[in-house]
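Predict structure. Chain length: 208.
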Amino acid sequence: MFHSIATCHWVMVVTRLEGKISLTVRGPETKATMADCPAQGEWFGVLFKLGTFMPLMRSGNLRDRNGVTLPNATGHSFWLNGSAWDFPNFENMETFVNKLVRSGLIGSDRTVEGAIRGELQSVTTRTEQRRVLQVTGLTRGAIHQIERARRATQLLRQGTPILDVVHEAGYYDQAHLTRSLQRFIGQSPARITHGKEQLSFLYNKEPA
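Prediction complete.
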């Protein structure tokens, strides 16, 4: 068991367990939960940038562990949009994602990407907020809170004193930090500092 911490991104995960392989599309997570990770299993996947999406499966519907495991076509392939796709492996995952993009099964929304970067948009604030929620499954406020909690967790694990983390991560006070981390990380600042419990990944390679 480990703490599956909050994340803003959607992911594709390939699972190998008990001789079987499967591919699951998972949405963002708005709070920390406990997750089971069988010792004999193997997992790898790809994390997607905010602003990318699958037209067939919106992130909001996949949010908070409501992911979709795609049906297997054979022992080596799965069904997606009426076609059989070979399961990717760790080495060819980038090629696999590029094929999905070329097939129109993964897209991106430039308005959302700009909004996340804080750029001035050519649409109204209300339209921007609606697009961000529709594409990411989260509000901009929720995205900020989750990313701040993950940043604070990294600082704590690097040995930064708790009061310094309050200041560097932009919390009002230590109580505010504690409430945030309990919700999004599932641990208090002190427990995170000790680092004795397994957390899901704080950092990955640059999202696709």
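Summary: The CA atoms of residues 84 and 139 lie 34 Å apart.
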